[in-house]
Amino acid sequence: MNTPILDRLKKLKRDNNISFHTPGHKGKNTLINWGDYIPHIDTTEIFGTDNLHDPKGIIKESQELAAKAFGAKETLYSINGTTGGIYIALGTVTKPGDKVLIQRDSHRSIYNGIILNRLNVEYIYPNYNEKYKILTGIDPEAIESKLKRDKDIKVVALVYPNYYGICSHIEKIAEIVHKYNRILLVDEAHGSHFAFSDKLPISALKAGADITIQSTHKTLPSFTQTSMVHVGTDRVNINKLKTISSLYQSTSPSYLFMLSLEIARAYMEGEGSLRLDKTINILCESIKTLQNIERVHVFTGDKEDKTIYDKDITKILFRLEGMAGTRVNEILREDYNIFLEMADYYYALALVSLMNEKGDFKKLIRSMENIAQKEPFTKIEDININLITPKNVLPIYEAFYSNKKIIDLNESVGKVSASFITPYPPGIPIICPGEEITKELEEQIRFLLGKNIEIIGLIGYNKEKIEVVD
Ligand SMILES: Cc1ncc(COP(=O)(O)O)c(C=O)c1O
Asked: Are 224 and 27 in contact (CB under 8 A)?
């Protein structure tokens, strides 16, 4: 029997690794034992169930309960993750050809949504903290000055929190966006848990966002691919939301997924919130212990930096002196069976959810103590990870759908890119379709390749080619 996926998943189950990554359920049951229900509850639209595309019964009721729990006027289940939720949300609040102000360090799904909905973009850049080598939040004043100058911007689309758990001053931003009568869309993929503890940053809905999209599966106990689109204000047309949702969601939405969203919500209304608060207390103690380990530094914020308005503590962002974050990640995985969410040149990031247990933190601390004692110092270069501002030549969707040709990277300077060039992690495109490839960008690509950073979008065995507009 040839079953490569099953074989690997069985091994993963046997290995019983410690999970500091998504999904937020961390392999544990909450209100029900899923083993008792799968596969017989994997049903479809039959008598007595409901239809996600026109909910009138149990799905309607379940979504209404979710709206109440998360503080929304209306909630829509997305069984195609936040990726699908973002396509739906962008399509709901725009018309093709509209201009959207987006955060340059947006996730790929925002860029895909821009292409699918044929939108024009204007960028707002995150700030860069040189001391800590981190991309931080967005200046509310910078948004105000863009909105004041450019009457064509219809929607402001931000990511909150960012990949490192850094939060912009979202309340102030919502106030400004509404002062100029525009719509605030928030990619809150990493913030579903904010609604359930006052020890966490404010949720985007509470801060006044018009529409937010949350990957419930990332930080709460639901299955991968399950997300919610929440509407916060009357500025969003609910009928349009439902119509657009049908464009991007399967006509056979999974009942397992929808149930998993319901279970996550129901759990968080009771035991889950208490467990979250307990986990946060353990987490605070664990961070203190980690910080006391020689060579280990945990980033918890920078009071001097006004663009770090808040920091989600459940994303432990840490580094080890004398070792790249990517290497720390590798050692934790290979020698200690601890799997992190991501790592970059400087930092490693452990994503904590309420389902992590005390033992997980103890193991992380012990492992870091060992690594800090045992592993030699290596040279860490002083590199600038700030985003380079490229020159936009064509709208993203025009370049994306243009005639293309593949050329060598070393012949690409001055040409217009036809694809996204995206280093992972964290998945922020450094070049978008329609942008000119400058010498500086070409050198940055070579530098990242030299550091063994994975870059999606380049072509060829050695990633030596790039697709440009013909
Ligand atoms: C900021 C951000 N937005 C959107 C997404 C897409 O979320 P999903 O995996 O739920 O489709 C991700 C996924 O990693 C993300 O990090």
From this structure: no
